[in-house]
Write a structure and sequence with these properties.
With 307 residues, the chain is of the alpha/beta class. It has 14 helices and twelve strands. Strand 5, helix 6 and strand 6 form a beta-alpha-beta unit. Helix 1 runs parallel beside helix 13 and helix 3 runs parallel beside helix 4. The mean pLDDT is 97. The structure holds 1,3-dihydroxyacetonephosphate and iron/sulfur cluster. The site of iron/sulfur cluster has 14 residues, from loops.
């Protein structure tokens, strides 16, 4: 696609967005051109907060399926569009309702905390939801000692190092973040000895152990803005680098691994956003009974806020 075509498509999207009274929400891992046309770019927590508050008629969610579902859970009176319905999160699919029910039977008395990277149906089976920005705070707020944490084992492991509660992780993982290896960090530290290392808590524990900061993608944006350090090694999905460079032109951002790409996030393109706004499809909805149960878990999280 030429720059000219991209610019024309971006213009057409913005025109149609006004006509439809739509808001475009984009996750920090989206392609640069999508971030650039979005009304708001953020992490999962910030995007849910925006989705809960917007007065737009239509939410165009540039992210993955569970994010659009969460927007619908919070704002069922809006049309929620996910420009490519195949944009799912493989980690979210690693826990099913049946599997979770079985595990709950094995662990009576445990409170179920589900990472927002889960389906609405799994949220409906959980007591409270969390994101990487508030997982520790959510768990610390609970009046229980045993926590079944689904579906990310590495976020679960990380949280267990920050609390005295017993965190029992589900064996899910993010196929993108596990591509970041300890060797990537040690090599880059040698190359950039002055750099700070920030990583996402979905990384393996061996990678987390080598980091200076463990942050959600929104936390990384804040850290980059506030730190005096001028070089930052970034251990998360590579889409993050676009926003960090745009907001901090004087600083240098080095991806921990160029291989850390989330292919499903990259399914959302200018073309698919334009088509989605034209056709008002694909719409994401959640059956009302599931939505109401899932909303209890999501609302509890929103009350707790950022960690
Ligand atoms: P954040 O909530 O930190 O943006 O993470 C979402 C995600 O899917 C990470 O892989
Ligand atoms: Fe899911 Fe990983 Fe992609 Fe995040 S980066 S949406 S956890 S597959």
């Amino acid at each position: 696609m030429t720059e000219n075509t991209d610019a024309k498509m971006a213009e057409a999207i913005l025109r149609l967005k006004e006509q439809r009274k739509a808001i475009i929400l984009a996750h920090n891992y989206q392609l640069g051109e999508i971030q650039d046309i979005a009304d708001f770019v953020g992490d999962s927590l910030e995007l849910s907060q925006k989705a809960a508050k917007t007065d737009a008629d239509v939410i165009v969610f540039c992210g993955v399926h569970f994010m659009a579902e969460t927007a619908y859970i919070l704002s069922p009176d809006k049309t929620v569009l996910l420009p490519d319905i195949n944009a799912g999160c493989p980690m979210a699919n690693m826990v099913t309702v049946e599997g979770l029910r079985q595990r709950k039977r094995e662990l009576p008395g445990a409170i179920v905390v589900c990472y927002i990277n889960s389906s609405a149906a799994v949220k409906a089976e959980s007591d409270v939801c969390c994101t990487s920005a508030n997982a520790v705070k959510v768990i610390e707020s609970l009046d229980a000692e045993d926590i079944l944490f689904v579906p990310d084992q590495y976020l679960g492991d990380y949280v267990s190092t920050k609390t005295d509660k017993r965190v029992i992780p589900w064996p899910g993982f993010c196929p993108t973040h596990i591509r970041i290896q300890p060797q990537h960090i040690t090599n880059l530290r040698q190359e950039y000895p002055q750099a700070r290392v920030v990583v996402h808590p979905e990384c393996r524990p061996e990678v987390i152990a080598l980091a200076d900061e463990v942050l959600s993608t929104g936390g990384m944006c804040r850290f980059a803005r506030e730190t005096e350090h001028e070089e930052i090694i970034v251990g998360t999905e590579v889409g993050m680098i676009h926003r960090l460079r745009k907001e901090n032109p004087g600083k240098r951002f080095i991806p921990a691994s160029e291989q850390a790409i989330c292919p499903r996030m990259k399914l959302i393109t200018l073309e698919s956003v334009l088509w989605s706004l034209q056709e008002m499809t694909p719409e994401v909805k959640v059956p009302e009974e599931t939505r109401l149960k899932a909303k209890v878990a999501v609302d509890k999280m929103l009350e707790i806020g950022r960690g």
